[in-house]
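Hi R.,

As promised on Friday, here is the backbone we talked about, encoded as structure tokens. Could you run it through your design pipeline when you get a chance and send me back a sequence?
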């Protein structure tokens, strides 16, 4: 495990974008696993800048996103497909057919989950998987629970996640109660994992993910078992890790 402590959100975003850009330069046709949420926005902004300045190209890159709300269409302004288009895909030279997000309107959700796993397998898995980190330690929409679920699956969102995501909707009542999420198996199959976290409100989740016991009550704790995982966090998010004597690479 590598751990980078950056001064603030902007520095965290630059560091993470540099690591992703290096992957693209090393392997122009790489498969990138992507995440949504407020934390990766700065990373995408930096990657857009690098693309526009000619430092990297996305022409051969393929992407697979972690998750999507059930019941939202791709053009719904709170869907994760819409998020990816407006924050990233529409601003870079990536081929639309090479960007993959679960279908939140699939009539057969279980079939959609199986199809998404088959897609990921057909691509050989992600070369680099970008991950955000929920306040309760979730990755993707893999919520705290009694077990780690390997396959892409439909998940019932916890009240904590609904409350946190309510800021993006007119009210908490409008937040979807279910999502399709990539399973822990597909996440852990990525050749490299890149976790970004920012803000004091993420400090406990970061600590549990890095220093706590491996337990499905903190889904991110499973990352301790991955052979190549990098955490890039700002100082606020690492408060508890360094209070416990964590080391820095």
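Update: got your reply. Pasting your designed sequence below so it's all in one thread:
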């Amino acid at each position: 495990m590598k751990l980078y402590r950056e001064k603030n959100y902007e520095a965290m975003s630059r560091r993470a974008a540099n690591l992703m850009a290096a992957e693209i330069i090393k392997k122009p046709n790489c498969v990138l696993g992507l995440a949504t949420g407020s934390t990766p926005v700065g990373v995408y902004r930096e990657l857009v800048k690098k693309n526009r300045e000619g430092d990297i190209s996305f022409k051969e890159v393929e992407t697979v996103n972690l998750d999507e709300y059930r019941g939202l269409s791709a053009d719904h302004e709170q869907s994760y497909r819409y998020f990816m288009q407006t924050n990233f895909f529409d601003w870079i030279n990536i081929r639309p057919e090479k960007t993959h997000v679960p279908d939140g309107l699939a009539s057969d959700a279980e079939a959609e989950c199986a199809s998404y796993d088959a897609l990921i397998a057909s691509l050989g898995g992600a070369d680099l998987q970008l991950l955000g980190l929920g306040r309760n330690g979730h990755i993707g929409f893999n919520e705290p629970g009694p077990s780690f679920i390997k396959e892409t699956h439909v998940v019932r969102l916890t009240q904590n996640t609904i409350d946190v995501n309510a800021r993006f909707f007119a009210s908490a009542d409008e937040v979807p109660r279910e999502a399709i999420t990539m399973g822990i198996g597909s996440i852990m199959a990525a050749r490299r994992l890149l976790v970004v976290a920012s803000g004091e409100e993420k400090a406990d989740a970061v600590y549990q993910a890095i220093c706590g016991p491996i337990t499905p009550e903190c889904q991110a704790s499973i990352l301790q078992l991955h052979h190549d995982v990098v955490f890039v966090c700002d100082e606020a998010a690492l408060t508890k890790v360094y209070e416990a004597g964590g080391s820095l690479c």
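One thing I noticed while checking it: The helical segments are 9-26, 41-52, 80-87, 109-122, 159-165, 184-189, 203-211, 239-243.

Thanks again,
M.
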